[in-house]
Amino acid sequence: MITNPTNSLNRTRAQESSHAIQRMYITMRHLFSRGFYKPMGVSGSTLRQALLSLRPEIYGTIAEEKIELQGLLYVVDRLPIGIEQCMHINLTSAEGFGGSHFEVIVPAKRRRNCYRIDFEQMNIEITRGRSEIYDILTHLTFLYIESHKIAHQVLIGEKGKTTRDWQKLEAAITAEKKLTKKAREIAVSHTANILGRTFEEILAVYDAFATDKQPDHFLHLIYWLGKRAISEITDQDKRIITFSPVLRERLGHHIHGEQWANTIKNILVKQQLITRPIHIISANLHSVMNALYAPKALQKLAKSTDIFTIYEQLSASENSAMRNKIKQLALKEGMIYLEDKSGTNIDVQLIDTAKVDFTQNTNLSGAATANNAPILIVMDYAFGEQAYETIDELLKPYKTKAKNYFLNVDSISVMGKAGILDGGKGDIMIPSAHIFEGTADNYPFRNELTLEDFETKGVKVFEGTMVTVLGTSLQNKDLLKFFHDSTWNVIGLEMEGAHYQKAIQAASKVRHSINPNVKVRYAYYASDNPLETGSTLASGGLGSSGVKPTYIITKQILKQIFN
Q1: Residue 163: pLDDT above 80?
Q2: Which of 248, 263, 297 is the last residue of a domain?
């Protein structure tokens, strides 16, 4: 029997997706080196085609004619308000805009400083490495693709004539008066026709787009996206993305990471803590503090209430007084809070555990004396490649005029949120290795945290390989299913694991700046299962379902540190 040789050459959707991600990765680095490009012009075509080929889950119906609403909401929450009006997007380093008259604009769900230079230009500060650039460029590409869908829906003929629906939307937006309920519903009706969506679908997401200053932000967003796209088509007035010369010069040089790390090490020297056993914990900035100090700060409540119920109460927005009580105790008993000034947007807590009163928390006291009691460096979450920059700099020796200090790092623990491919929201993942998507880099390691540590804690636990992805926006079900079903045995996906491990292995095994047998702990709690829900690390807050796994992991990390 003769088989068709072409059959063996047919690529699966997973292979096509993997290739598309690699193309996007290479293209974005090329465009960065070039210094500028037009997203909807010839220079941006490779990036557009790769994204359309990939069809990531987060961007939903990007490859269809109808406008994607949930994907649009996801992107808008991570970009500065007003960016849809701008013709020029300038990505910069930290270049002094913070001390100017320009108002800083911080997106709702991304910690990055943005500045509206004038009506047509938005500057976005890049201080968190290449991952931040990939994040922004993919979001902007999606935004501009959607804007052209709007334009194609409303343009009639080649002379720039538009549909009645568009004219009615434009009249509503340009009117200098607040929309009445009736006027809003009329505008929504016309907008639904433009977007290829039902009136009901628009109303379901309308309030999610609203801001305090602009309750009708959704209508303004659609109008300006369409208006700029119409100008591109009819007048060839292309939107442009530029990269500042300073950003291009600084990127990859760890400028912000070095400042951040040296600030920490300088405090350790001043407080005479730098020779003590150091344990680095990458996590949120509440769970370690609450686990150490809540039993004493909330002593009366702790006698009558389950500790996990207290942790759940602490996560509620209305309980700021309880949180403040814990923080004030922490600052009295060994915690130093370092608000970031370097631009990394990573705040830090230094905790001298010799000053912690463990009388209400005896299971964490261990056998340490004041001279060898652990020093905890609790750092807020890094973003993608920023994890390498920060940890790489932190693990380097600290040089002063007097001497060089090699940090006595006993352990490095990483706790984070990840997408799970087995199980569901709130489950725990224990990685045995990190594989880096789009590369041949693999990082097997010995994880001090094991399956057995969590099996009796009342949560589901999975152990296996984790894939470190280039971006949460670049995953689809085909690719994730391949990772899950293949011999890679991937149980989840996240953005920082391989970067942390790259830095740790370099410091411990190659540079010998820290103990070659440094203990490493990784554990993740699941935000969602993208194979089931069609979302990747993008789902909303975990709410109360995230409290239990967060504190179970935190307590296990602390238990190993102290005992």
Answers
A1: yes
A2: 248
**Is-contact 377 281, C-beta < 8 A?**
yes
| Domain-ending residue, one of 224, 248, 272 | 248
User: What is the Cα–Cα distance from 469 to 502, expressed in whole angstroms?
Assistant: 14
User: How many residues are present in the chain?
Assistant: 563
**How many domains in the chain?**
2
DSSP 432-496: EEEEETTSS-EEE--BSS-GGGTTTTTS-EEEEEEEE-S-GGG--HHHHHHHHHSTT-EEEEESS
CA distance linking residue 518 with residue 217, whole number of Å: 51
**Are residues 209 and 76 in contact, defined by beta-carbon separation less than 8 angstroms?**
yes
Question: The domain containing residue 204 runs over which residues?
Answer: 13-248
What is the rounded average pLDDT of the residues 354-369? 76
Q: Do both 57 and 38 map to the same domain?
A: yes
- Report the distance separating Cα 258 and Cα 308, nearest Å: 37
State the average pLDDT for the chain: 90
Contact 90, 121 (CB under 8 A): yes
What confidence score (pLDDT) does residue 536 get?
Answer: 43
Cα–Cα dist 375/387, whole Å: 21
The CATH number covering residue 369 comes to 3.40.50.1580
242 and 299 housed in the same domain: no
State the distance between the two ends of the chain, measured CA to CA, in whole angstroms: 66
Residues of the chain with pLDDT > 90, as a percent, come to 69
Which one, of 200, 198, 192, 199, lies nearest residue 163 by Cα? 192
Query: Please, which pLDDT band fits residue 185 given cuts at 50, 70 and 90?
Result: very high
219 vs 359, residue with greater confidence: 219
- What pTM was computed for the model? 0.87
pLDDT at site 59: 86
Asked if pLDDT for residue 533 goes beyond 60, the answer is no
Q: What is the β-pairing status of strands 409-420 and 278-282? A: parallel
273-296 confidence digits (pLDDT tens)? 999 999 999 999 999 999 999 999
pLDDT in tens, 68-86: 999 999 999 999 999 999 9
Q: What is the pLDDT of residue 541?
A: 54
How far apart, in whole angstroms, are the C-alpha atoms of residue 93 and residue 90?
A: 10
Together in a domain, 270 and 415: yes
Q: Are residues 259 and 243 in the same domain?
A: no
CA distance 348 to 553: 19
Q: Compute the distance between CA of residue 70 and CA of residue 208 in angstroms, rounded to an integer.
A: 10
Please list, residue by residue across 317-354, b when 16 or more beta carbons sit within 10 angstroms of its beta carbon and e when fewer do. eeeeebbeebbebbeebbbbebebebbbbbbbbbbbbb
Q: Which two tokens stand for residue 353?
A: 């555990």
Distances in whole angstroms, Cα of residue 93 to Cα of each of 150, 259, 492:
33, 14, 32
Residues 113, 69 within the same domain: yes
Which residues partner with 522 through β-bridges?
A: 414
